[in-house]
């Protein structure tokens, strides 16, 4: 028994099948070429469409980052101010001087020091050439204002304490 039906020409059937197979093969190769070209065009088109989306995303991220950074700075400043305020309150309760207290006190001391220096210089200028004679008990006995340098030297010598020599 033959597997080939009667009345069919084997040569033309093989040629037709071979032609159909070749056409299928060429259609497949063409499909791959079409997909390849279309894929490249689609890829390029998708890249172009993605660029503005990426730029918008970057801008949104930068904006969010900027806001977050500003919020963190403000929160940090608030914490710093709160700590300073509470620290000052604690120092006052403990009766400890603050930096501002030290600055005020230092300024007052400098001012007072200048005034004392002025008073001392005025007093020295007013008492130039005056010799005070002091008793052994520490009390002022007399004030002598010499008129000449020689008189000033004699007055100074006279006001010097005298030492008694021991007798034998």
Describe the secondary-structure layout:
Blueprint: H1 10-93, H2 99-126, E1 131-134, E2 140-144, H3 149-159
Antiparallel strand pairs: 1-2
Provide structural commentary:
With 168 residues, the chain is mostly helical. Among the domains are: 78 residues; 31 residues, no CATH class. Helix content is 73%, strand content 5%. It is built from three helices and two strands; from the N terminus they run ααββα. It has a two-stranded antiparallel ribbon. The chain is rod-shaped. The termini are far apart.
Our measurement of the CA-to-CA distance between the termini, rounded to an integer number of angstroms, reads 179 Å
Strand order of the largest sheet: 1-2
Unreliable spans are none
What helical percentage do the residues reach?
Answer: over 70%
How is the main sheet built? 2 strands, antiparallel
* Individual helix count: 3
What general outline do the C-alpha atoms trace? rod-shaped
**How are helices and strands ordered from N to C?**
HHEEH
Measured on Cα atoms, how large is the radius of gyration?
Answer: 57 Å
Question: Total strand count, please?
Answer: 2
Mean pLDDT: 79
Strand content: 5-15%
Structural class: mainly alpha
């Amino acid at each position: 028994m033959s597997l080939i039906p009667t009345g069919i020409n084997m040569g033309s059937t093989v040629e037709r099948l071979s032609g159909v197979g070749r056409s299928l093969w060429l259609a497949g190769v063409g499909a791959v070429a079409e997909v390849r070209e279309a894929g490249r065009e689609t890829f390029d088109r998708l890249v172009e469409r993605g660029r503005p989306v990426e730029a918008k995303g970057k801008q949104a991220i930068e904006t969010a980052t900027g806001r977050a950074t500003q919020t963190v700075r403000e929160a940090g400043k608030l914490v710093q101010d709160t700590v300073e305020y509470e620290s000052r309150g604690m120092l006052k309760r403990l009766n400890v001087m603050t930096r501002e207290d030290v600055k005020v006190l230092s300024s007052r001391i400098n001012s007072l020091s200048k005034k004392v220096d002025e008073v001392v210089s005025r007093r020295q200028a007013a008492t130039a050439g005056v010799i005070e004679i002091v008793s052994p008990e520490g009390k002022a006995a007399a004030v002598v204002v010499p008129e000449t340098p020689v008189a000033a030297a004699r007055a100074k010598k006279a006001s010097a304490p005298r030492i008694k020599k021991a007798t034998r």
